[in-house]
Specification:
alpha+beta, seven-stranded mixed sheet, 7 strands, globular
Amino acid sequence: MTTDSASTATRRTVRAYHKARFRGDVTTAAAQIGEDFTFRSPFITSDSPTGHLDGLDGLLGIVTGVELISELYGETEATLVYDVHTAPGVGITQRTAEHFRLHDGRITSIRLIFDSAPWQAIMSAAGPTHEDTVAVE
């Protein structure tokens, strides 16, 4: 596979995951994930293809839009930068970077990077979750 076609395949997989996740389509998002998957964010650490998507309905209940700012694709990795806009009652616009690693056309690692400070009160009010591990940094 040439670099251009590999980058195109990476883009197709990552964008399918991203769009499905923000539609709340866990089945389609999980279908983009490969073996030995890991997910890390300021709040969640998971090795499950769907564990990091648990509670997605709660997040999507307050999200009013996602604005893609930048996307970079290589043969086996990608980075998206986007703003997550929330309902006026929440009042957060979250600048987010998401780094993906892929193997054989499937996502094997996601690192979600954002400032967790605006979310601390919301996460505390929501109480404990049932992901593999919840860590507040």
